[in-house]
Amino acid sequence: MYDTTMYFKLKENRPHGTSERPFSLYHIRDIHHAFQIPVHWHDELEIIYVKNGALSVTISGENYIGNQGEAFVVSPGNLHFMGSQTGEVDYYTFLFPLEYVSFQVNDLLEKEVMAPLKSGKMMIKPQIGDRLSDICDGLIALEYSNLVPFGAKKDTEFSENQNENMNDLAIQLEIKSILLQFFKRILKHGFIVENNTSGRNTTEKEMISYIQQNFTREISLKEFGKQFHLSEKYISRYFKEHFHITLSQYINHLRLEHARQLLQETTLSITEVAMQSGYENVSYFIRSFKKMYGMSPLKYRKRV
Prior knowledge:
Layout: E1 24-28, E2 35-40, E3 45-53, E4 55-59, E5 62-66, E6 71-74, E7 80-84, E8 89-96, H1 108-119, E9 122-124, E10 127-129, H2 133-143, H3 160-188, E11 192-194, H4 202-214, H5 221-227, H6 232-243, H7 247-265, H8 270-276, H9 282-293, H10 297-303
Antiparallel strand pairs: 1-8, 2-7, 3-6, 3-8, 4-5, 4-7, 6-10, 9-11
């Protein structure tokens, strides 16, 4: 099934994963219609892995097509979005903070690789091809496995809680081991390069940050153009050309995601959810929500 958690905010303020499990895996498949995950960025490193089908990926303004077995890397802070014209694609994304595999010792690896990647001075080339397929398949298998500590007999040598804790520790060690193999691979192939400012475009980030901070009220093209000293006509064209989505579609996406979170985390009425998400017309909100998530707001709340 399609994992709606991938429709996340444009700049996610919440971290992926938890302190116990900072590594996150998302799986997108079985959509069967055109879709786009709108432009966003985050502080974690992201690996996008196409298991089957074809995926359109845009990273720092560069457009790519990912086919079966191919992977892309999004360095921290880089704007990116992805989608499919048909929905006939099966892909995974892996997200983790660089600190997850970084060492406390200020050694050569930390000085020349990890620290420059964190600061944005260096980046990983986005298009990796099929050089990571075995690593990505290993991460997928590990996330869906149920490891038992080495040498232990399940449910006998450990209590249930101890076994669960040790199992989680073993999985984290395995994940870190595979991720270190990932860095070894990209270093070997020369994929770590100097970053340029186009990958961290401040104007584009300011635009989407402004919308994110104001999407619950009406944002007119006139207001938006005045904010960024651009004409209304140019704003519309610029947004469509750079982000492959209209300004109104983008605002609607943020509103619907906000509404989804309110339905999941509060007991507000459907009307209150609509109003707090920027919709004055409740009927339009319900129609828009159903079109995006495949069910009405009330049905969604009951399911979660």
